[in-house]
Structure formats: structure tokens, C-alpha cells
Amino acid sequence: MSGFLPSLQGMKGRGNPSQIKSIDSNERKTLMKILVGLSGGVDSAVSAYLLKKQGHEVTGAMMSIWDDSLPVPKIAGGNGCIAPKDGDIKTVKKIAEFLDIPFTVIDCSSEYKKTVLENFKSEYKSGRTPNPCVWCNAYIKFGVLPEAAKRGGIRFDKFATGHYANIVYNDEIKKYQLKKAKDLNKDQTYFLYRLSQKTLSETLFPLGNLIKSEVRSIAKEIGLPVAEKPDSQDFYCGDYNDILGFQANPGDIVDKNGKVLGKHSGIWNYTIGKRKGLGLPGGTKEPLYVIDISAKQNVIVLGSKEDLYSKSLTAEKVSWGSVPVPKEPFNATVKIRRQNAPSKAAVIPMGESTAEVVFETPQMSVTSGQSAVFYKDDVVFGGGIIKRRAG
Questions:
Q1: Predicted model pTM
Q2: Would residue 133 show up in a list of annotated catalytic residues for this protein?
Q3: Residue among 81, 108, 133, 136 flagged as catalytic
Q4: Is 108 a catalytic residue?
């Protein structure tokens, strides 16, 4: 991997050393070299600040995932992950200078394209709705980035990010466990459930026990240049067709009885639960929703809101990152998308990598390709990719 941009490697800052708290001799015994993933946002910047304040030797690293071969317009002002990052690199440079830490940019674009973008395109072509952030975190941000840093000669004991989550070690089962953040409104464990034991053992989340308002206050108090910067909002700020680049593939839009209602130009333009912009001539008397997407038949199926509710789902590629693989069914709360509150359910393991989830109350818009994440209290027991749902 070409890895590092020479003009930024080893960058030192001009921050105010008085802002970094001194430590006593007892604290020095536990000091570490820590690589902090910097994005240009306030969360990762405050994480780096807090670690340095504790006396650790901090190095900043930013992953570059932009590939100029991507057929994506260069969006001005967009704050999604997929976009040219020249502005973010300049911002991270200012953060590093302010904190007086070395900083480097690591090229992860090739791996990101193969692991995240190819999966993204394949899933949409198959009539599924993927969550690219899950794959990015598991394999790029917490995999390719720190490993490339090591190969580039950066020595560190731990890798840290600005995610809102916690990691604890369970002496009883001898495993590191991923736990929800204090700030449940910002909790990001839904995107992190695939992190392995090795990754959990080598990772720090400095913001796990803070709420967002406290992070903003810290940033303002010390004068961080990104104290007022808005949070990143999405994977991509434009039309997903920019990334997919598929040729039109017309097919039928039908009701649940098979009656043709209209035509579509490609199944990837639809997701389960979609109501507006269905492309039906003249509209309908009653509201209709996408209730099924068939890649094999190239058909979009519409139905009523009641048709969107499911009693159960099957998850595949299940990861049991925080616990031994369960042998028996267990009760849990399950999230089927980031924005939803966890719902009570029975989780039935079916081997090491498959599980069935039976909900206490039917759930709306269970979507294949999204993740179902299992929680017991605040601990992430595991999760997998939704394969199918059942009424």
C-alpha cells in the first residue's frame, strides 16, 4: 500500500502546551502510545485531546477513501463519507497543529472500494438495502487503517476513535465486550457490532462516558478549531445512483396479488417501506408501500402499511463478538436499524453464523441487507445481516 502522503507525514503542531494537563508519577506507569483516527470532526478531535491530556503519546491518522476513478461528482459542501476530502485534510492538519501531535494520512481507498463499495453495489443489485458503515468500521476503519499505520512504521499500543461506545473486559467469560455509550442518543454500537475480540482488546473509545453536549463544551473551552462543526450526516450526500452507476433495467410494479400497477427503471431505486416517488401513473386511492423487492423476477411489490409488519427475521453472517457462541435461545432487545429503539425479541441461534429473531411485537419495514443487532442490557451480544423476514 502506498499509504502515506509525504507532505503530511510526521506533521507537528503549534498548539498551546499549557492546555495539556501534567500527570503524576503514578499515572506515568500506564501511559501508552495511542493512534487516534481523526476525521476532521469534533468527536475525534476531543478524543485526541483527552488522551493527550491524560499524558499519552498521541499520533493522529486520517484515512483517505476517495478514489478519483469513482463516477461521483465532486460535491461542494457535502459532509458525507464519500466525497473528495481536501477540505477535511486541511481541517485535520489544523487540529493536529492545535494539539501539537504528529499526523499522517493513510490511503485506504483501494480496500474501501473492494470491501465497502463493491458490497454496496452488489447488495442493491440483489434487491437488498446495505449499511456501508457496518462494513467500513469492521474492516477499514478498525482494520486496514491501523494495520497500514503499523506497516508504515508508526508504533502504538492502542487505537482510538471518537465513536460513542464503551469496551469492558468481562472476567467471568474472559472476553472484551462492546457496550452502549452513556449518551444513548449518540450511541454507535449498531455500527460496531462486528468488531472482533482482537480489535476490541486494542481499541479505546474516550467519549463512551460523555454526552455530546459535554464534548462540545470541552471543544469550546479549549478553543478547538472544529468546536462548532456540524456532525457528519450520511455515507453519501448525493443520489446513490451516482455510486451505483447501473444501466436502467425496467420491470413491473405489482400489487401483492400480482396485478401490474406500473413500471420501474431499476429495483435499486426502491427500499422496503418506500411510499413516495413510486412512479405509478395517476396515483392510488389508498397509500401504498414497497413491501417486497424481487431481483430474480425484477419486480417491485406494493401493499398496505399493515403488510410491512413482520413477526420474525432470519439473520446471516452473524458475529458474536462479545460472547461465546450461544447454544440456546435467549431473550434480548434487537435493533433493525440505527434510528429505531431496540425491541424485545427471542434470539434463536442456528449454528455459529445464523440466527432467527422472533419479536414480541411485530416490527415495521424489516429490510434485507440491513443489520439486526442483539443487546442484553447494555452489552452487544452479536448481530448479523438480515436475510429475510416473515409475517
A1: 0.88
A2: no
A3: 136
A4: no
